[in-house]
Design goal:
Layout (H helix, E strand, L loop, with lengths): L10 E11 L4 E12 L2 E12 L21 E2 L5 E5 L9 E2 L6 E2 L4 E4 L8 E2 L4 E10 L5 E9 L16 H10 L12 H4 L8 E6 L8 H8 L1 H15 L3 E7 L3 H10 L4 E6 L8 H9 L14 E5 H13 L5 E7 L7 E6 L4 H9 L9 E4 L6 E3 L12 E5 L17 H5 L6 H9 L3 H4 L12 H5 L6 H13 L5
Parallel strand pairs: 4-17, 12-13, 12-15, 13-14, 16-20
Antiparallel strand pairs: 1-2, 2-3, 5-11, 6-8, 7-10, 8-9, 10-11, 16-17, 18-19, 18-20
Helix pairs in contact: 1-4, 3-5, 4-7, 10-13
Bound molecules: iron/sulfur cluster (2 copies).
One iron/sulfur cluster (SF4) binds next to helix 12 and helix 13.
């Protein structure tokens, strides 16, 4: 047999993948390989086309993720901090320190007051100055512990866990005061004690709100801890499979996590679309299970936890670190030093603003938003302090906020087409305005997830989200406006 007929194995000295995003949620990956066969250099081009997982409807606000390439840095702390005792959903914590007490970083200063509550810890070392009622980010006055910082940062931690069993990890999560760090602030030990059988854990790395990039930075910089935290949460739930859902506009985070994730954690690329990170939409995108109105994820066998929550769980289990600091994004045209920072709990918004303002004129800021621009809260002053749930603070200029006055509805249907819960926001608004309260229930406003897509999509700038919130209130209060 001559040499020319011999089968010489294919060698691939170079292999390149080129992803291409196509319209309508399709993605195409081209694979280019240069190889030699029978001594001849060949170029091989293949491709694969797939559709990214997603949910129905939604919208595409400009992403404005200006801080995505800014690594997490530790933010300075002021001399006086005011740490809220109500940083979570549920009963505020009971203070367990008194004026004049010395505290360290990690000293418990508030004890969970019941099952649905969470412990609160000092984020600096120093002396307790007293107690003060201050407004939180939504304007409700809550009790805070004032601490004078000695800038020594002496710390205490919980004892290390040598055997991470279901019971040990769950107890550690409770003791460390961990709450839903995506902004929901529901105590994590309660969420991880479902009363119905659960077979799936979803870690939420979607981060679909414009501007916010702290979860993205965590996924890039703390990927090992996030995966370990996900494993610990899996242990608590006793589930075999976990998914980490990440929007496809964070390709490097997807690739990085895919390259190091164990087999029981699947990294899922999701279509970049708002509100991809809302719990019900995320569950549908990944599992195609529908959470009915009034039901919880556990009713369809799922628990969802944020990537930052998984990171905090890992820190608490492996390092004995309680929850007193979090990653957050500071952004908007109203400040110069935009970025992603680890920020201690209890720092006033005013201190944050002064530190990042730089050379920008204070007149530039037209609106301050805590959280994202779609679901966050507008701040009327800078008195609130950072909590476990403060994922971002945005200082938005006139061009970045919608200041136009509402005009007449033109029946364009954009709000209906965009609503991810298939509601009719314009009709709900009309019913609220015309006091047709008896028919409101039929429009199902209680299933609204308050994503703000309707208000955002409305060309007439109707305040639809406010109207739907009011409709929910009317129904809950039995028809009284
Ligand atoms: S009605 Fe509710 S769920 Fe629907 S788009 Fe408006 S805010 Fe979102
Ligand atoms: S989007 Fe605005 S203008 Fe269009 S139907 Fe809805 S409320 Fe009316």
């Amino acid at each position: 047999m001559g040499v020319a007929n011999e089968k010489i194995p294919l060698t691939l000295p170079f292999n390149e993948k080129i992803p291409l995003t196509l319209p309508f949620g399709y993605n195409k990956i081209f694979y280019i390989a240069i190889c030699t066969r029978n001594g001849v250099l060949r170029l091989i081009l293949t491709s694969e086309c797939f559709m990214l997982r997603t949910f129905r409807r939604g919208t595409h606000p400009p992403q404005s993720k200006y801080t995505k390439d800014m690594p997490l840095a530790e933010f300075d702390a002021p001399q006086i901090l005011a740490i809220s005792l109500a940083q979570h959903i549920g009963a505020p914590a009971k203070p367990v320190v008194k004026e004049g007490d010395s505290v360290k970083v990690g000293t418990k200063i508030g004890e969970a007051n019941g099952f649905v509550s969470a412990n609160v810890f000092s984020s600096v070392s120093g002396i307790v100055k007293g107690f003060k009622k201050l407004p939180n980010a939504v304007g409700t006055k809550v009790m805070h512990v004032e601490i004078e910082n000695d800038f020594k940062y002496d710390s205490v931690s919980l004892s290390p866990i040598t055997e991470p069993t279901k019971e040990n990890v769950l107890e550690r999560i409770r003791e460390a005061g961990i709450v839903g760090m995506g902004g929901a602030t529901f105590p994590t030990h309660v969420k991880l004690s479902p009363t119905k059988p659960v077979d799936t854990l979803i870690i939420n790395g979607a981060e679909c709100e414009p501007y916010i990039t702290c979860d993205y930075r965590l996924m890039l910089e703390k990927s090992e801890e996030i995966l370990k935290g996900a494993e610990y949460i899996k242990t608590v739930l006793g589930v075999e499979k976990a998914y980490i859902g990440i929007e496809n506009n964070k390709k490097d985070a997807i690739e990085l996590l895919k390259s190091i994730a164990p087999n029981d954690i699947e990294i899922v690329a999701l279509k970049a679309k708002y509100p991809q990170g809302a719990e019900k939409q995320l569950i549908y995108s990944i599992t195609k299970r529908i959470v009915p109105t009034g039901a919880l994820p556990m009713d369809v066998g799922v628990v969802v936890a944020n990537v930052h929550t998984a990171y905090s769980v890992c820190r608490a289990v492996d390092n004995g670190e309680p929850c007193y600091m979090r990653a957050m994004t500071l952004s908007g045209d109203g400040i110069e030093k935009k970025g992603n920072y680890f920020v201690r709990n209890g720092i006033s918004f005013e201190f944050l603003y002064e530190k990042v303002l730089g050379s920008v004129s204070p007149d530039v800021t037209r609106k301050v938003v805590s959280g994202g621009p779609m679901m966050g809260f507008s701040e009327s002053n800078l008195l609130p302090t950072t909590t476990k749930g403060t994922s971002s603070l945005l200082f938005l200029s006139e061009k970045q906020v919608n200041v136009s006055k509402p005009t007449q509805c033109i029946n364009c249907g954009s709000c209906v087409r965009g609503c991810p819960m298939s509601l009719n926001p314009s009709k709900i608004e009309a019913m609220v305005l015309n006091a047709h309260t008896e028919k409101l229930k039929e429009m199902n406003p209680l299933s609204c997830i308050e994503c703000g897509v309707c208000s955002y999509s409305c060309p007439a700038k109707r305040p639809l989200l406010s109207a739907v919130r009011l409709a929910k209130k009317i129904i809950k209060e039995g028809g009284e406006k």
